[in-house]
Amino acid sequence: MQPGQKTTIAIIDDDQCLLESLKDLFETTGVESRTYTSADAFLRSGDMHHVKCILADVRMPGTSGLELLSAIVRDGGPPVCIMTSFADSRTEAAARSSGAAAFLEKPLNSKDLMEFVASAAKP
Q: Distance between CA atoms of 61 and 9, rounded to whole angstroms?
């Protein structure tokens, strides 16, 4: 991230430990993150157009990550990185064809995460 430039991202996952770990990781690099335990909570928050990018799990109770991705793309929202422990070629193809800017398999590689956020944060 560039000095003095504030970047805010959304992290959406039903795993509270992962949310806290990612929040801590991004805080160490000067990236502000807002965390949500479900896609529905994120959609209700009204934050879609107040974040530079979104990291979203695929499998969550309620609205899935792929359903969330479709809603974000339809509404002209920010770039989305889909994260999953259940990575397979069909899920990745569905995510990419629905407009995902990135697709990452858990456990997440912090370098890949930071590259996605840096890319999304560019003006």
A: 21
| Cα 16 to Cα 41: distance, rounded to the nearest angstrom | 14
| Spatial separation of the C-alpha atoms in residues 46 and 72, rounded to whole Å | 12
Q: Indicate the pTM of the whole model.
A: 0.94
- DSSP string for 17-54: HHHHHHHHHHHHTTEEEEEESSHHHHHHHT-GGGSSEE
Could you give the CA distance from residue 83 to residue 45 in angstroms, rounded to a whole number? 21
Domain residue ranges in the chain: 7-121
The predicted structure's pLDDT at residue 1: 44
Superfamily of structural domain 7-121: Response regulator (3.40.50.2300)
Measured from the Cβ of residue 63, the count of other Cβ atoms closer than 10 Å reads 18
Q: Band of the pLDDT at 5, cuts 50, 70, 90?
A: low
